[in-house]
Amino acid sequence: MKKISAVPIIYILFLMLPIYWLVNMSFKTTNEILGTFSLWPQEFTVANYVKIFTDSTWYTGYFNSLTYVGLNTVISVSVALPAAYAFSRFRFLGDKHLFFWLLTNRMAPPAVFALPFFQLYSAIELFDTPLAVALAHCLFNIPLAVWILEGFMSGVPKELDETAYVDGYPFWRFFIRIFLPTIAAGIGVACFFAFMFSWVELLLAKTLTSVAAKPIAATMTRTASTAGYELGLLAAAGTLTIIPGAFVIYFVRNYIAKGFALGRV
Amino acid sequence: MNKTTYQKAWFFVLPVVALVAFNALIPLMTVVNYSVQETFGDNVFFWEGVKWFEDVLNSERFHASLLRQLMFTGIILAIEIPLGVAIALTMPKKGPWVSVCLVFMAMPLLIPWNVVGAMWNIFALPDIGLLGHAINGMGIEYNFTRQPFAAWFTTVLMDVWHWTSLVVLLAYAGLRSIPEDYYQAAKIDGAKPWAVFLHIQLPKMKRVLTIAILLRFMDSFMIYTEPFVLTGGGPGNSTTFLSIDLVKVALGQFDLGPAAAMSLIYFLIVLLVCWVFYTLMMKDEDQ
Fold first, then answer.
1. Which carries the bigger pLDDT value, residue A43 or residue A166?
2. B6, B104, B204: best mutation site toward chain A, by most A Cβ within 10 Å?
3. Is B22 inside a domain boundary?
4. What is the per-residue burial (b if ≥16 Cβ within 10 Å, else e) of B154-188?
5. Contact at CB, B90 and A8, closer than 8 angstroms
6. Residues of B whose CB is below 8 A from A107
7. Side-chain-facing half-sphere of A221: CA atoms under 13 Å
8. Chain A residues closer than 8 Å to B165 by CB
9. Does residue B287 surpass a pLDDT of 50?
10. Domain region containing B238
11. What is the pLDDT of residue A262?
């Protein structure tokens, strides 16, 4: 095995320190957290995790979050696919302006939209449903998915399309049977990014839900403010939110670098 | 790639346009609507013209939070971009370590933003946090809930922790696209490492670095959740960035007019900077 430079190792250690501290706190009792300073739990306890898995206000938060994140990923990527194909293959009236307009929505600060979003989704009676959050997150996830997929699709030579056409493939058959498998990696990366940005966003998710569809992150902030200072519980909930992310990274690990470059390397 | 002109391609983009327009245009029009009116509740509105815009543009509070925002974005760009490039240069080029590095480095990017704030809060608490405890242990007085400088230091460190990996991944992707021949040619010519960096690696990374700066600019300019959970904008107003200030005005005080005017000015600033970057990037791509 080749030797590895010290810099990435030091950097990774720096990244892991706060995470370690969070995990460490999650296995401590509240008394120990507030009473003593220790590098690892002195009285090891899983009570915080037991509470999360048995109390429905806690664990439904996870289901709610995963529901709207999953919905959003499916919606964003499936509508972005044909659009990205159009941008990568055709020139049409207003294409460049349209592309930039899409990107501006990735740039819109969610704080600007919080209040109007609340009114809009209340008006169409979707307030406090996972679908509302899933649709709202489309605002920044669709542009990003289009951007990434367009990057990956532009890397596929146009001869592929032309050959299929000459061979008499109807367009949709070509698109689904031949083209999509060719850019499978790009689709994976686009799904990963849609998942990522929907999973980490909180401001809109919190604004658009109250009780029934409350995301886990909102449960956490409300616990922090109402139930006093239950740091151990908060730490355990935080630790659990890291797991889905770590899980999906593992699947796209070979494409992640190219994905962050939006398929443009 | 040479593209064919095909107007019916609009049908391909129609679902995207419909969904995004629904989410973007209706709320944006609501904001524009509020920004020129005054309300006393009960859905009664009066035309106010550009009064709110004048108010916001002349208010010291807005100037102060804009200045803080610019400083914050400037500082984190100045740290994260060079640091990210430096780390990417030392990454292994192939082998099993690559995946390990990438997976670990990407971890902070997938943690919900409020958890990032809460995690750093716990990490930096002066009495029970590892960081706070260590700094105080070195004899430096440190309490990010009381000292503005400590609050800034913690917020910047948190952002560096959170987002430097994005720059590393982008720069690494750019570096990997350089063919091995280039390095061999440089070796034969006897080029020094910094010359290799300046003439081979940096030009090859130009495009991905533009994306990195663009993404980091956008995201740091709209940062809300992490500093809000970490410091709540305090102590005083010392870490009240634009988004935090805006939410305070809009949802805290419910001053819809000023909040809407502020939103639009805020959005226009972001748009302007991004347009410049985007134009630069596309010019590069066309070549």
1. A166
2. B104
3. no
4. bbbbbbbbbbbbbbbbbbbbbbbbbeeeeeeebee
5. yes
6. 218, 222, 270-271, 274
7. 22
8. 15
9. yes
10. 62-286
11. 67
Contact between B114 and A116 using a beta-carbon 8 Å cutoff: no
Residues in B closer than 8 angstroms to A115, CB to CB, are 30, 250-251, 256, 259
Q: Which residue of B has its CA nearest to A162?
A: B4
Distance CA(B124)–CA(B231), nearest Å, equals: 11
Residues in chain A with CB shorter than 8 Å from the CB of B172 are 257
* ipTM rounded to 2 decimals: 0.85
Beta strands at B37-39 and B4-5: parallel, antiparallel or unpaired? unpaired
CB contact under 8 A, A242 and B17: no
**CATH number of residue B185's parent domain:** 1.10.3720.10
pTM of the model: 0.87
Min Cα distance B121 → chain A (Å) is 10
Is B1 close to A202, i.e. CB distance below 8 A? Answer: no
DSSP annotation of A212 reads T
What is d(CA B286, CA A122) in angstroms, rounded to the nearest whole number?
44
Q: What would the mean pLDDT of A149-157 be, rounded to a whole number?
A: 87
* Residue numbers in B near A260 (CB within 8 A): 166, 169-170, 173
Domain annotation covers residue B21:
no
What chain A holds in terms of domains, given with CATH numbers, is: 1-45 (no CATH), 55-260 (1.10.3720.10)
Chain B nearest-CA distance from A8, in A, is 6
Contact A1 B120 (CB under 8 A): no
pLDDT value, residue B250: 76
Sequence-ordered list of residues with C-beta below 8 angstroms from that of A28, at least 6 positions apart, any chain: A41, A42, A43, A45, A232
Residue B1's pLDDT band (cuts 50, 70, 90)? low
Q: Which residues does B54 contact at the CB level (< 8 Å), separation at least 6? A: none
Q: Which pair of tokens denotes residue B252?
A: 């805290």
Number of domains forming the structure of chain B: 1
Residues of A with Cβ-Cβ distance to B99 under 8 angstroms = 253-254
Give how far A180 is from chain B: nearest CA, Å. 15
Sequence-distant (≥ 6) Cβ neighbours of residue B270 within 8 angstroms: A107, A108, A109, B218, B221, B222
User: With the CA atoms of B60, B63, B69 and B70 taken in that order, what torsion angle do they form, in degrees rounded to the nearest 10?
Assistant: -150
Q: What is the pLDDT of residues A168-209, one digit of tens each?
A: 888 888 999 889 998 888 898 889 889 988 998 888 888 888
Count of residues making up chain B: 287
CA distance A81 to A189: 13
Asked if residue B55 is part of any domain, the answer here is no
Residue B276 lies in a domain: yes
